[in-house]
Write a structure and sequence with these properties.
mainly alpha, two-stranded antiparallel sheet
Length: 91
């Protein structure tokens, strides 16, 4: 559920930035506001990507350890022709 909290932070940061941009007339302040907003957005994006990567790392590790939940397709090699369980044996 941390993803929802980061989305809420995104919305709040955007609203705060818009409020500051609408009341400022100084170019330096405008640039600072945009830079701060962008920095926060990138940090939240990195957190999202790190969370996503950690979710996908666990199943890959489980699959690599030979878990029975990983579907395997049985194949056999005959000479130079590879066949599997779906191959027909009609002559």
């Amino acid at each position: 559920m941390r993803w929802f909290a980061r989305r809420q932070e995104d919305v709040q940061a955007g609203l705060n930035a818009l409020e500051r941009l609408s009341t400022s007339t100084d170019v330096e302040t405008l640039v600072d506001v945009q830079r701060d907003w962008l920095r926060g957005a990138v940090e939240r994006l990195q957190a999202d990507l790190a969370a996503l990567a950690s979710r996908w790392t666990l199943p890959a590790t489980t699959a690599a350890s030979g878990s029975e939940s990983t579907p395997q397709r049985e194949t056999q090699t005959t000479g130079s022709t590879r066949t599997d369980e779906r191959a027909t044996t009609a002559a």
